[in-house]
Write a structure and sequence with these properties.
- The strands form 2 sheets. Strands 2, 4, 5, 6, 10, 11 and 12 form a 7-stranded mixed sheet that branches. Strands 1, 3, 7, 8 and 9 form a 5-stranded antiparallel sheet that branches.
- Strand 8 and strand 9 form a beta hairpin.
- This protein is mainly β.
- It is built from no helices and 12 strands.
């Protein structure tokens, strides 16, 4: 059974940094692309970032939503079945619930709040 468990982050001031982690289980982690999405109160769920499977070695294996490009990165550690979301230069508009995703599977999401 697939499980995605997020942790990390919480609150940061504008301009600060946070790192989210997502530990996966129940499948061969290195063979799958992994994604992060977010949903702010009253808004639709938004794509944040993705990283291709470790078997995909052609070109840049990461993609980012326009609103986070240049500020967020999405590394993965296949030995630990973990994908990260490193968030830098945070803005108040980054406040949202962040979800780890693999195809139809979702983590429960954890809140990130950016405020002064």
């Amino acid at each position: 059974q697939v499980h995605l468990v997020e942790s990390g982050g919480g609150w940061a001031q504008p301009g600060g940094s946070l790192t989210r982690s997502c530990v996966a289980s129940g499948f061969n982690f290195s063979r799958y692309s992994m994604n992060w999405f977010r949903q702010a109160t009253g808004k639709e769920r938004e794509f944040v970032a993705s990283i291709a499977s470790s078997e995909d070695t052609f070109g840049d294996n990461t993609r980012y939503g326009d609103s986070v490009k240049g500020r967020f990165t999405i590394p993965r550690d296949n030995a630990k079945n973990t994908v990260f979301l490193q968030m830098n230069s945070l803005k108040p508009e980054d406040t949202a619930k962040y979800y780890c995703n693999r195809t139809v599977y979702w983590g429960e999401g954890t809140q990130v709040t950016v405020s002064s």
